[in-house]
Amino acid sequence: MGYWYLAIAIIAEVIATNALKASDEFTKLIPSIIVVVGYGTAFYFLSLVLKTISIGVAYAIWSGMGIVLVSVVAAVLFKQVPDLPAIIGMGLIVSGVVVMHVFSKTIDH
Length: 109
What we know:
The chain has helices at residues 2-22, 29-49, 55-78, 84-103. The chain has 4 helices and no strands. The two termini are 14 Å apart. The model has no long low-confidence stretch (mean pLDDT 93). 79% of the residues lie in helices and 0% in strands. With 109 residues, the protein is mainly α. The protein has one domain (2-103). Helix 3 packs antiparallel against helix 4 (84-103).
């Protein structure tokens, strides 16, 4: 269940972070509520993840995938398209997560 909880935590964080942009500095009610609920959900499920996945691995996956997915959603919703160096950097983040999963002994395979 750890990876399912992690997926929920990542999705909630991505929704909350993009709602943070839409909240216009917390001046819009609905996006502001989504921010609070989204981050609360993300941290709750992240806390469940830590029962089965080590904190370093869980946080690396959560933050790394969050960065990439927030950037993709922001490109679509807010037309904030990352430039080539940003895309390369995100590719390196994803590569790091893959390397951890394939080679790390701290992850249950």
